[in-house]
């Protein structure tokens, strides 16, 4: 396997060779030193990461920060529209944005399975660097561990992130009020279906790419335009239904959404029908809900639609007084309560 | 396996049952919700973690912070003197301290292999909570993923940490000067030997416990007493020799240490001789070097010796002008240059 080939051919385990990661790459010796200085640091070039210290020393502009972390275990490592590296950077960037914070610095911790081709590792690190550049964050600190063949799964990546909180409004589930509108930034379920299709070797008439993206342009615009955003949440694991249900429970309010307003791409809808999956519960990686006062909903939609990552933004529902629950006004005209799934339809999608 | 039994009997893989972690615990559904709210959050109780937000919102006292991360993949998960949870908290706490920062907040991200007994997970989370309390940090944000049996190794933990930098002195490899003294806080190689012995079922006449510990008391005391600390470094992966060699290279100076001044417990020395291992290259998890001006060395030693974690502190060598290198004045009277190992003697010890 070389770096020139298309990115969708990797499968672990692979034979050990000089072109693969060895157990010694995870020790404290010469190979670990080479991996860090020849493979990792050159891609994350910045003064802080290169300082050779146990911690990155940061001078933030203000002491009000957001702090988050996520580990990524997606299988396969590369899929249409993204890879585990892009996912790891944008996932943490988006979690900071959802708290109304401007992403500034992230960490990168790798757990590599012995035998991972170095070409794959290089591609994924390059993907992380590209994503970090796009989102305006620096990768300032990190760690590398190697586990024996059969004790990992190619590559797991953890990112943690620090963002600077901007403005005085508290963007949080607790700020949601009865009467608020629920806006959705784009069509749903693309990420989960793209990963599943890649893993299972499924083919669609129209290709389905993951929606994996930085939400920075959309969220920055909402804040710059002084929209009074009450809450933001990206619809990742568990999909749109699960994250809305969680917000309903935390806020103690009733959420109602209209099924026919929720955009789903035709190919995604077809795949879901074929597989018996509900797109409302499928993970997204570049799609979020914004909960805003009704009086500002139209202006917020206009602001969101001006950016490509959220150009399909739509109003999908309202928040009201009542027992905390998520109600779906189905396309068939019926109204039913959505609950958490007892099983997960798609494991290992992020 | 129950929570009452002694902690050293766990081995993965184990049969699936209601008492073990299932793949669905890693999804977005009901089981994941239960795991978070019934198993994880109660142990890390604090207002920030319980907010239900994508990020923790922190009000730091000042914007000058240190930021670090580490993933822990130790095998076995529990060993004499510690476990992966204690290691994950103190490892990140110590990395912040080594940068002269007061540890404040940490994250906890779990990658669990399907089949891990919930009793083991509960013990390890409790161990993390206890360690965090001892080190004065709050666990404010986290993440949980579950991978299929055979695609992980029981449990991997990532912690990232934020510390507040105190004082104006820059504690970093770049601050090391010719003439400085090299102080060591305690006897070396206990952690690596303790983990190895547990893994391989070795028995010693005198038990060897990991030195896994928070270095907060020792480092706080050095800073409180206004010792002009030039550099701090914990002697983790690669052991004392590797971390000193790295500091020599970054500072561009020659480090010389005296072998007979370096404390090694008898049982550890015996195990190393039996196994053909050099204690200078074996990992520690509660042992650090402080590099200070010669004029302050005696006072620094007295300050360090007043705390149990560093009561064995000794002066082991000096820094001088010359080609960057680490020289060992051996107990036999010879002098030789120490280099990085080309292989790692002990994989998976942290």
What does this structure look like?
With 350 residues, chain A is an alpha+beta fold. Chain A folds into two domains: 23-165, 60s Ribosomal Protein L30, Chain: A (2-Layer Sandwich); 173-338, Phosphoribosyl-aminoimidazole Synthetase, Chain A, domain 2 (Alpha-Beta Complex). The first copy, chain A, has helices at residues 30-40, 84-98, 118-135, 190-200, 216-224, 239-251, 266-275, 297-305; strands spanning 56-59, 64-72, 78-79, 82-83, 101-113, 138-147, 155-165, 181-184, 231-234, 254-258, 288-292, 314-320, 325-329, 335-338. In chain A, strands 9-11-8-12-10-13-14 form a seven-stranded mixed sheet, with helices on both faces. A four-stranded mixed sheet of chain A has the order 2-7-5-6, with helices on one face. A two-stranded antiparallel ribbon of chain A has the order 3-4. The two termini of chain A are 24 Å apart. The model of chain A is unreliable at 1-16 (pLDDT under 50). At the A-B interface, α1, β1, β2, α2 and β5 of A face α1, β1, β2, α2 and β5 of B.
């Amino acid at each position: 396997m070389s770096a020139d080939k298309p990115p969708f051919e990797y499968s672990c385990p692979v034979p050990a060779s000089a072109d693969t990661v060895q157990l010694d790459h995870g020790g404290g010796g010469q190979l670990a030193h080479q991996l860090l200085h020849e493979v990792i640091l050159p891609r994350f070039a910045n003064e802080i990461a290169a300082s050779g210290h146990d911690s990155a020393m940061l001078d933030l502009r203000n002491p009000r920060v957001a702090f988050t972390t996520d580990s990524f275990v997606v299988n396969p490592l590369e899929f249409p529209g993204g890879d585990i590296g892009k996912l790891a950077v944008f996932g943490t960037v988006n979690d900071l944005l959802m708290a109304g914070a401007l992403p500034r610095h992230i960490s990168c911790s790798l757990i590599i399975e012995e035998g991972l081709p170095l070409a794959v590792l290089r591609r994924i690190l390059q993907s992380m660097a590209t994503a970090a550049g796009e989102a305006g964050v620096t990768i300032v600190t990190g760690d590398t561990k190697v586990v024996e063949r059969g004790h990992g799964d190619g590559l797991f990546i953890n990112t943690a992130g620090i963002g600077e909180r901007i403005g005085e409004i508290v963007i949080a589930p607790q700020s949601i009020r009865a009467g608020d509108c629920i806006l959705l930034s784009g069509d749903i379920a693309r990420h989960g279906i793209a990963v599943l299709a890649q893993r299972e070797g499924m083919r669609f008439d129209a290709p389905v790419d993951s929606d994996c993206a930085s939400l920075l342009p959309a969220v920055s615009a909402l804040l710059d335009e002084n929209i009074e955003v009450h809450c933001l949440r990206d619809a990742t694991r568990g999909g749109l239904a699960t994250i809305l249900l969680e917000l309903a429970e935390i806020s103690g309010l009733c959420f109602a959404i209209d099924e026919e307003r929720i955009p789903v791409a035709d190919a995604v809808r077809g795949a879901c029908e074929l597989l018996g999956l509900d797109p409302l519960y499928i993970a997204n990686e570049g799609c979020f809900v914004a909960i805003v006062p009704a009086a500002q909903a139209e202006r917020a939609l206009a602001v969101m639609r001006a950016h490509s990552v959220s150009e399909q933004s739509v109003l999908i529902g309202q928040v009201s007084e009542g027992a905390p629950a998520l109600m779906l006004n189905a396309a068939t005209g019926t109204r039913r309560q959505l609950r958490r799934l007892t099983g997960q339809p798609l494991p290992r999608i992020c």
